[in-house]
Amino acid sequence: MEQNFEYISENYITEEQLCSITGITKDDLSKLIQNRLIPNASYTVTRSINITSPLNDEFQSEITEKYFSKSCISMVQKNKELKDSQQFKVEFKEKFIQLLMKHPDKHFAYHNIFNNETVDQEKFNEIFESEWDAYCEGIYGICTLNSTDEEIVKKEIAVQKLIQFNTRFPQRPLNPDEIEELIRLNDEFNEVANSFAPYQRDSSSRGKYLDKILENNNLSYLVKKY
């Protein structure tokens, strides 16, 4: 429990801190979240407090704190005066597809979205809406370092490349060339991907597709530490 809280408190900021830094109220922050102009909190931490005294009395309470990605600071500063929430989404989508189309390994991303060099627009629209929902819910504040459109694209590609690599080499030890390839994939993933809180690590993309294969090939020194 302590390690999880340390990770969250060191890498994320509270609702109060976010409001103080950006000069807005909690009501303003709530409106920005509702209008999908910034992502929601990535973690909610509830702690129980038990107070006793020599008078043989007792007081119990719970404190709930929301923790946001630090990238929300710049998002609040950018969007707090924006009245049209759809404008932000349109700009986000345009940049998202531009980044995807320009990526040299784009064919790894989002199964069956490409027909040669042309994107299937209907499938892309569905995928984007799903990714947009995940972004607004604060999920990419957990999964990526800075919760940006560029990192969402890069992480998708990095994860799919790791999944394919694990499928190709599910059991046997890797040879030197394959180890070099795995190290490159590790670097690509670490460029954009977060560590995840300790309680999430094993079930995360990092835990499933990277940590295990590194450990199985005597590359534990490459496993990202807290």
Question: What can you tell me about this protein's structure?
Answer:
- With 226 residues, the protein is α+β, with helices and mostly antiparallel strands.
- The protein has two domains: 2-78, no CATH class; 84-222, no CATH class.
- The protein has helices at residues 2-11, 15-22, 26-34, 72-79, 85-102, 121-136, 139-143, 149-168, 176-192, 205-216, and strands spanning 12-14, 43-52, 58-69, 114-115, 118-119.
- The strands form two sheets. A three-stranded antiparallel beta sheet has the order 1-3-2. Strands 4-5 form a two-stranded antiparallel sheet.
- Strand 4 (114-115) and strand 5 (118-119) form a beta hairpin.
- Helix 5 (85-102) crosses helix 8 (149-168), helix 8 packs antiparallel against helix 9 (176-192) and helix 8 crosses helix 10.
- The longest helix is centred in the C-terminal third of the chain and has 20 residues, at 149-168.
- It is flat.
- The model has no long low-confidence stretch (mean pLDDT 95).
